[in-house]
Design brief:
heterodimer, A: six-stranded mixed beta sheet, 3% helix, B: 113 residues, four-stranded antiparallel beta sheet, 12 strands
């Protein structure tokens, strides 16, 4: 079946512009995660959605970052007024309900963001 | 807080050599431990996992044993292949409402023919 799909695969933007990154999780997965992979910081958690519960936004690095998950499926990560330090690969992962998943997360190929 | 430390890379080996990538962790309670692999140009894939002390995860000839006494989860393979060249990430989750993954910095493995 289809895996986690992310778009675009690459995004080049100018400093100060806003960008939107999209994630289509595996159908039926209720949990959705965003992570960031950057040279200086490694792989770090950004935000977590689980069903209709309030998201865990504890990993978002600043208020320029926000994310939505509409209808419990597709998620969009928005970065406003991009800075050069936002350049990274943004990874999305999804997971079935925890009791069944035994903690396994399935990752997309990521969006490589370059801020010039 | 929770954290994962893994050996710096790159690790360069000849085909059929023995591989060890060290991983240690700091966590409260009883975390689940993982190795993820990222092949060139691809997304992260789960390689193996262990959910309690003394469990051994294994897949594709790779193994790792959950050692609570040494807080370690070292990755091993007896005979590496060129196709094993990738970046390997050790990670943990510590339950809770989020179950987020906490990753090590990754170790690049390059296997030469």
């Amino acid at each position: 079946g289809a895996g986690v799909s992310q778009s675009p695969s690459n995004k080049v933007t100018e400093k100060g512009k806003d960008v939107e990154l999209r994630c289509d999780p595996i159908s039926g997965h209720t949990a959705l995660y965003w992570y960031r992979q950057s040279l200086g910081q490694g792989l770090e958690f950004l935000i977590y959605f689980q069903g209709n519960s309030a998201p865990d936004k504890s990993g978002l690095p600043s208020d320029r970052f926000s994310a939505e998950r509409t209808g419990g499926s597709v998620s969009t990560l928005t970065i406003q007024r991009t800075q050069q330090e936002d350049s990274a690969v943004y990874l999305c992962a999804s997971s079935p309900r925890l009791a069944l998943a035994k903690n396994i997360q399935y990752f997309g190929a990521g969006t490589r963001l370059s801020v010039l | 807080g929770n954290s994962v430390t893994q050996m710096e890379g790159p690790v360069t080996l000849s085909e059929e050599a023995f591989l060890t990538i060290n991983c240690t962790y700091t966590a409260t309670g009883y975390p689940s431990l993982f190795w993820y692999v990222q092949y060139p140009g691809e997304g992260l894939q789960l390689l193996l996992k262990a959910t309690k002390a003394d469990d051994k995860g294994s897949n594709k000839g790779f193994e790792a044993t959950y050692r609570k006494e040494t807080t370690s989860f070292h990755l091993e393979k007896g005979s590496v292949q060129v196709s094993d060249s990738a970046v390997y990430f050790c990670a943990l989750t510590n339950g809770g409402a989020t179950n987020k993954l906490i990753f090590g910095t990754g170790t690049l493995l390059a296997v030469q023919p």
